[in-house]
Design brief:
With 116 residues, this protein is α+β, with helices and mostly antiparallel strands. The chain is built from 3 helices and 5 strands. The chain binds guanosine-5'-monophosphate. Guanosine-5'-monophosphate (5GP) binds next to strand 2.
Amino acid sequence: MSEETIFSKIIRQEIPTPLLYQDELVTAFRDVAPRVDSHILIVPNKHIATINDVTSEDELTLGRMITVAKKLAKEEGIDEKGYRLIINCNNDGGQEVYHIHMHLLGGQPLGAMLSL
Ligand code: 5GP
């Protein structure tokens, strides 16, 4: 689970993907298979496999993910109506890509938090 994923290649633009935001800590781009009208992924540049692997040294990066989500929500025009931020962890959490990422979801009513 410590192997790099496709997200590292996107961050380095080895796989060309339009970036919505990038700085020294985080990168954001649209989800390739959007589940809702506005579906953006906000990813630390550093490879961290799961939330279980974060340390106190990552706190600045994790905070930056939130402030970038806020900025992008405004740019998407979804900030006032609302949106949801999700980070999945491991199998039960539904994590598919083992490089932590925050989903910014909005652009339509999102309904109940979970449908099991
Ligand atoms: P997870 O289930 O791990 O929380 O979410 C992984 C997300 O990454 C999924 O929503 C999936 O559609 C998205 N994804 C997987 N591969 C790629 C890719 O190559 N490019 C982009 N832009 N999104 C991807």
